[in-house]
């Protein structure tokens, strides 16, 4: 089993709400032996998180779901830049236990908006909270 690397708490409570889900995804990586170099919660508008996987990175955001690409730049508090990004698939809140498996066969195609992060009444917050409690 790979070492468990988890995101640190974020100073903004609105961003920190995503930590449970992102932690569940990181735990899924560890359970499947995926080596994770780092993970952090990024800014909001949309809220996102970065998983650094060596030369590649996986970025999750609340509008597009997961996108995989070559890591160009990024750090906590600064949006991550990827080269040649492709959709991982699985939707905005892919099952945390399945994200690591999707790394081997991404859905492909350019990232696309799956929901608007500005829509505060679409049930996303409740679904996000449930994902973090699995």
From TrEMBL:
Highest taxon of source: Bacteria
DUF6292 domain sequence ranges: 21-104
Protein name: DUF6292 domain-containing protein
């Amino acid at each position: 089993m790979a070492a468990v690397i988890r995101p640190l708490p974020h100073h903004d409570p609105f961003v920190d709400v995503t930590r449970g889900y992102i932690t569940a995804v990181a735990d899924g990586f560890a359970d499947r032996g995926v080596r994770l170099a780092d993970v952090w919660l990024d800014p909001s508008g949309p809220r996102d998180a970065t998983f650094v996987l060596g030369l590649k990175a996986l970025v999750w955001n609340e509008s597009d779901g997961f996108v995989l690409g070559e890591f160009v730049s990024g750090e906590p508090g600064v949006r991550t830049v990827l080269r040649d990004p492709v959709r991982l698939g699985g939707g905005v809140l892919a099952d945390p236990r399945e994200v690591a498996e999707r790394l081997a066969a991404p859905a492909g195609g350019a990232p696309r908006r799956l929901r608007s992060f500005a829509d505060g009444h679409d049930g996303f917050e409740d679904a996000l909270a449930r994902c973090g409690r699995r």
